[in-house]
Each structure stands twice: as structure tokens, then as C-alpha cells.
Design a protein that fits this description.
The protein has one domain. It has 287 residues and is an all-alpha fold. The chain is globular. Helix content is 77%, strand content 0%.
Length: 287
């Protein structure tokens, strides 16, 4: 129960962070894309710093959730952030929710409920072997790099989508590193200091932040946020099942229902992310 509550709280804070950070990042010059200097420029933007504070608080809750629950449970629950963004965004902007917005909300809730109900995830390992870690991190790095290269050759919409997908892959791998780091911290500070996972987590965290902010910078939030929100949990589910051996129902009918549930949840995310009530004004953003 603690893992679920922390994951839901984290999703709310991440949703707020995305909206606030997009407002700050979308005004930055194109030449700063994919540079650490982009983060230094954004630190001068009060609204972005507020988003960063929400990000940090959300990560603390995610850290606790992954320390007490399976990746396969925690990461999909982060999708609920868009459900929180709907009424908050509507109240903030004075806009009304449409029928499509409510359809998206129903798809997300139904898809998430069916997936967790059918998959019945069971806790797995808190760590894995060196070969598995190397395979996971190299694969994540290669895929993220390929998406980044593709994004640099695309138009602004394609750039936002590709960089957001790359960020989702990096954040999925970071979730695995977070889970292991959380369990190391349960044993005290010394295990955290002497193991390599927390240090690599820091690298992946910074890389994910640069990719995410570059995606926000490239175009409207409804290009980047749905992509990132869908890719992160899907990558995390695969890592949880195949790397950390978090058991999920694997009968053919179960797999079919799980795939359909994830498809419904993904469709709902796309609808919600395009909700005008949850997004900032776009007059200054190239679509």
C-alpha cells in the first residue's frame, strides 16, 4: 500500500513538474538543445525551478515506492499524473474539460486497472548480476543515442517525440538503478557509497533531464509528454519482468489482455496529453 500511495503522489508531482518545466524550456534558444548548459540557463527561470522542486519531491516518493514495491507496479502508476493534471490544469487556465478528455481518463484508468489486475505482479529481486546490468545499461544507452540522432534530423515535432522517447528509455533504466539504490540505502550509507549503482543513477538522471528539457524545448507539450509518459512505464515493465524477475501472469490469454490494457492506457495518455485544459498556452511554442 505504501508503494502505491507514494507512486500516486509521485505521479502528481511529476505532472506538475512537466507543465512548469515546459513553460520554462520552450523559450530557450535551439542551439542549447542537448547541452548541460541548457539546464544552467533554465536554473535562472523561477517557474522552471519550481518545476524542478516538484521533480525532486516526486523522485523522493518514487524512490520510496520502488524500495517497497515492484517496478512493474510502481512505474505504470506514474501514468496517473496526467489524470491529476487535468483538473489542476483546468482550474489554473479557466478552461473546461471536453468529452474527449473524459474518454482519455476512462481509458487510462481502465487500462491501468486491467493490466495490474491481470498481470498480478509479484516482487522480484532488488538487484541483478553484472552481465544483466551491463546488457541493460548498454542497450538503454544505444537506443537513447539512436533516438537522439534521429531527433536531430527531424522537424520540430519529430525532434520533440524522438527526444521524449529517448528520455523515457533513460528514465526506465534509471528506475531500475533507483530500485537497487533504495535497497542499498536500507542497509545504511556505507553500501550506497561503495556500490556503483548510485553513481550511474546520477549520470542517467542528468542525461534524462537534459533529454526531457530538450524535448520540451523542441515543441508543444502534447508532442513530448505523451511519448515520455508511455515509453517510461513500458520500458520499466520489461526491465522489471526480464531483469529483476518480477513475476507477471504469462498465459497466452493473460499476455493478450495485458497488451490490450497497455494499448488502451497509451491511447488514453495521448488523448489526455492533448487536453487543452492541462496544457500551457501555446502562443509562444512552435507546433
Amino acid at each position: 500500500m505504501l508503494a502505491v500511495l507514494c507512486a500516486l503522489g509521485s505521479s502528481l508531482l511529476y505532472a506538475l513538474a512537466s507543465v512548469l518545466q515546459h513553460r520554462g524550456a520552450s523559450d530557450q534558444p535551439d542551439e542549447e538543445s542537448l547541452r548541460v548548459s541548457l539546464l544552467l540557463r533554465l536554473l535562472r527561470q523561477p517557474i522552471w525551478v519550481l518545476g524542478l522542486a516538484c521533480d525532486a519531491a516526486g523522485y523522493v516518493l518514487q524512490f520510496v515506492a520502488l524500495g517497497h514495491g515492484a517496478i512493474v507496479v510502481v512505474q505504470p502508476l506514474l501514468v496517473c499524473g496526467l489524470l491529476f493534471a487535468l483538473p489542476l490544469g483546468a482550474a489554473w487556465s479557466g478552461r473546461r474539460l471536453s468529452r474527449v478528455d473524459w474518454v482519455g481518463a476512462v481509458l487510462v484508468c481502465a487500462g491501468l486497472a486491467v493490466f495490474l489486475g491481470v498481470a498480478a505482479p509479484a516482487p522480484g529481486r532488488s538487484n541483478t548480476g553484472s552481465v544483466q546490468w551491463a546488457t541493460l545499461l548498454i542497450a538503454a544507452g544505444v537506443v537513447a543515442a539512436a533516438l537522439t540522432v534521429a531527433g536531430r534530423r527531424a522537424d520540430r515535432r519529430g525532434t520533440a517525440v524522438a527526444l521524449a522517447a529517448a528520455a523515457g528509455v533513460v528514465y526506465g533504466a534509471a528506475a531500475a538503478l533507483t530500485k537497487t539504490s533504495s535497497h542499498l540505502l536500507d542497509r545504511g550509507i556505507v553500501p550506497v557509497v561503495i556500490h556503483w549503482q548510485p553513481y550511474v543513477l546520477l549520470v542517467f538522471g542528468v542525461a534524462g533531464m537534459v533529454l526531457a528539457q530538450s524535448a520540451f524545448q523542441a515543441g508543444a507539450l502534447d508532442f513530448s509528454l505523451p511519448t515520455m509518459t508511455v515509453v517510461d512505464p513500458i520500458v520499466s515493465i520489461a526491465i522489471g519482468a526480464f531483469v529483476f524477475h518480477e513475476a507477471v501472469a504469462a498465459e497466452p490469454i493473460d499476455i493478450l489482455l495485458e497488451v490490450l490494457a497497455l494499448a488502451a492506457m497509451s491511447a488514453g495518455v495521448w488523448l489526455l496529453a492533448r487536453c487543452e485544459a492541462a496544457l500551457p498556452e501555446r502562443g509562444h511554442v512552435e507546433a
